[in-house]
Write a structure and sequence with these properties.
The protein has 218 residues and is of the alpha+beta class. It has 9 helices and 4 strands; from the N terminus they run βαβαββααααααα. Strands 2-1-3-4 form a 4-stranded mixed β-sheet. Strand 1, helix 1 and strand 2 form a beta-alpha-beta unit. The structure holds glutathione (GSH).
Amino acid sequence: MLKLVIGNKNYSSWSMRPWLALRANNIPFEEIFIPLYTDVKADKDRILSFSRSGKVPSLIDGDITVWDSLAIIEYLAEKYPETRLWPQDRASRTHARCISAEMHSGFMPLRNECGMNLHRPIRAIPLSDDARANVARIQEIWADCYARHGKQGPFLFGAFSGADAMFAPVVHRFRTYAIPVKPEAQAYVDAITSLPAFQEWTRDGLAEALVIERFETV
Ligand SMILES: N[C@@H](CCC(=O)N[C@@H](CS)C(=O)NCC(=O)O)C(=O)O
């Protein structure tokens, strides 16, 4: 069976992505949980035993290890083509890959200022101009996808795709930091928050007792 190595569901937005891709598609997997940011050497060594990057997530499929969230989604899309993790037509698939890569490699101001923390009381904070520009760009992406594919379903490309797995964690950040969502992007936020897999991850994350003080100051 596939094994997915993940970190704290409360804090680890990168772990959430492949977990959602698997769960939303009912692909069975064993979850290997390693607490992050504990400063316990044994925890770090355990992560390193799965991936020399020292980071989670990692997917283990027999003798194949995939140690990056987007690479895992690519791997799953190849291994399970019936899941349609990428859209069928080339133009939409390219678009899905572009926005996924944009999310994967960018939006650092928003990420740095609004770390994922599910149990943080919902409260707005002042955002830098750069983070506000990130918020605007993300909503532009959602609204553009909705205009193109909204008739096919509520997700970015109609049905749930790898792009949704990539963007779902940021929906949590919008919620936790009370970031206002424009009406044309709201349908997408509603679709993600209604997804059973998203709700399951959120429930699990909220139930986690592990608190990492340095993430609790924002
Ligand atoms: N590019 C990687 C980034 C993974 C990453 O930064 N993971 C964080 C958790 S969200 C991590 O493992 N941090 C542990 C550490 O730095 O000790 C991916 O997308 O999978």
